[in-house]
Structure formats: C-alpha cells, structure tokens
Design a protein that fits this description.
141 residues, alpha+beta, TATA-Binding Protein, 2 helices
C-alpha cells in the first residue's frame, strides 16, 4: 500500500509479463499497433462500464482513465500503455490504483482481467495473435 500526496492509502494492481498471476501478465499481440490503440481507446472512452477517459496520447502510447464502482464508491485510476516490444509486436500493460485498499487488490485484478477480455473480444484476437510475453519469441524467415 502507498499513500498519495493528497489522500489516504491506495492499492495497486500492475501487469508484468513475468507475473505468476496469469491475469496480470498484460498482453503482447501480433496485431498492428493502430488497431490495438483504437480498440483500447474505445474501451477506455465508453466501452467499459463506469469508466471515464481522462487523457490519451497515441504518440506516447498512454491512456489514462478513472473507473468507479457502484456499491463501494471506490475510485480506480487506470493507466494503460500501448507500445511495441523488442520484436515489434504490440505490447499492452496496465496499472490500476484504487483508493479502497481493503478491496483494492482483488478489484484492481478484476478490472485488469475484464479490460483484457474485452480488448481481446473487440479485436477478435485469436490465440495465435496473443503471444506469451514471458517466453522469448524465436522468429524464422
């Protein structure tokens, strides 16, 4: 838990390709950046229930949004990064910081899981297009 400058304690859920939790590994797609960017932006801008887009910058590959819950009145700050990995594949990572630490870890993890499930569905990503970022890809010509 951390304490932000202007408020109480927070909890963070963050993706990492090497996470032991499969829901927190983010995504590496064999799909063009532009398609992934447009799909992720559309989800943050109204495609996810109770999300509000704060800022997006396609050159920096950053999307910032706020998600609120109905019952707990929790506010989650969502940062999504979309970029290219070392192999030129499109990489999407996400950090969710919530202001309700008691519920935060599970809630953040669920938000990450739902976002990626909807992103996969929106792009109709096949298993062959969702790469395992924890394994080094070997490309042949």
């Amino acid at each position: 838990m951390s304490t932000p400058a202007g408020g109480g304690p927070t909890t963070t859920a963050q993706t990492d390709p090497r996470s032991p939790d499969s829901h927190l590994r983010g995504r590496t797609y064999a799909i063009f950046f532009d398609e992934v960017w447009r799909s992720a932006s559309a989800l943050a801008e109204g495609g996810m229930r109770r999300w509000a887009l704060l800022r997006s910058d396609d050159e920096a590959g950053v999307i910032e949004a706020v998600a609120t819950s109905g019952v707990l009145k929790a506010t989650d700050h969502v940062d999504i990064s979309v970029g290219l990995d070392e192999n030129g594949q499109t990489r999407v990572d996400m950090t969710v910081t919530t202001d309700k630490p008691l519920f935060g870890i599970g809630r953040g993890r669920r938000l990450v899981r739902r976002f990626f499930a909807r992103l996969d569905a929106r792009m109709r990503a096949t298993p062959a297009q969702i790469l395992d970022a924890s394994r080094r890809q070997s490309w042949s010509t």
